[in-house]
Amino acid sequence: MSNRSSRPWYLAPYYIWILLFVIAPIALVVYFSFLDLAGDFTLENYANFFSSTYFRMTLSSFWYAFLITLISVLIAYPTAYWLTKTKHKQLWLLLIIIPSWINLLLKAYAFIGIFGLYGPANQLIQFFGAGPLQILFTDFSFVFVAVYIFIPFMVLPIFNSLDKINPALIDASRDLGASQWTTFRRVIFPLAINGVKSGVQAVFIPALSLFVITRLIAGNKVITLGTAIEQQFLVTQNWGMGSTIAVFLILFMIIIMLLTGPKEKGGALNGKAK
């Protein structure tokens, strides 16, 4: 009984951290979302969010986040699968993760030089006989750089899931006459689905709130929810509208986490065993 009664004291720092750095900031955001420029209570911010302008911006944010996530999965899954088959897989995994340690601004400025009119990308295009192209400040450059930034966060969870699969299950599938595609579709992919879901969370959610890349790489031609929040707080000084957008962004993130969360407590392997 003494151990049980004293156990909550060990959790006190955790609860204090959650209160100060999770609940309190969200409560402040919700509070400011009900204020206008004069500091008076209003529901106009929420009414404005459902206008055609913010509706198109929300759809645009989801489209770009979906596109970035889809491309990341298509690149990360075969990469992670190949890593599990290599001899020095931990070393190769480290080489993929290392770019994520570099500051985001440094990577963005590096791509500004790469995609510039006189950068290496245009020099390569001119080498093949084409003229210089406006690669920077386009949708392509925005998606390319975003995928490059998020790839490590997609590869790592997928690699962990694939690496934990018992090879005996794959051998058993092939011994029973299943083709490589059938083995992948019926054995490998279902057992590694939680890794894909974790990768989707790690990529889709932050992709919704990108704003640094939209400014430096896309030249504000791509407007996301994160860009709108930044403009409302720093440009127009409308903290109420910025907080309202942030409230809906938090709701979208919660919904995505619920949709991509694990459905089985025992994990995919235990679920299949049952």
UniProtKB/TrEMBL annotation:
| Membrane topology annotation | Multi-pass membrane protein
Report the residue ranges that make up the ABC transmembrane type-1 domain in this protein: 58-260
Keyword Protein transport assigned to the entry: answer is no
Which coarse location class applies to the principal site listed for this UniProt protein?
A: membrane
The entry's localization annotation reads:
Cell membrane
Q: Pfam families given for it?
A: BPD_transp_1
A GO BP entry = transmembrane transport
Instruction: Alphabetically list the UniProt keywords.
Output: Cell membrane, Membrane, Transmembrane, Transmembrane helix, Transport
**Which PROSITE patterns does the record match to this protein?**
ABC_TM1
This entry carries the following GO cellular component terms, namely: plasma membrane
Which chain regions cross the lipid bilayer?
Answer: 12-34, 62-84, 91-115, 135-159, 238-259
Q: Does the keyword Cell membrane apply?
A: yes
InterPro entries to which the protein is assigned, alphabetical: MetI-like, MetI-like_sf
What superkingdom does the record give?
Bacteria
Q: What PANTHER family does this protein map onto? A: INNER MEMBRANE ABC TRANSPORTER PERMEASE PROTEIN YDCU-RELATED, INNER MEMBRANE ABC TRANSPORTER PERMEASE PROTEIN YDCU-RELATED-RELATED
Family, per entry? Belongs to the binding-protein-dependent transport system permease family. CysTW subfamily.
This protein is called what?
Spermidine/putrescine ABC transporter permease
What organism is this sequence from? Planococcus plakortidis
Write the lineage as a comma-separated list.
Bacteria, Bacillati, Bacillota, Bacilli, Bacillales
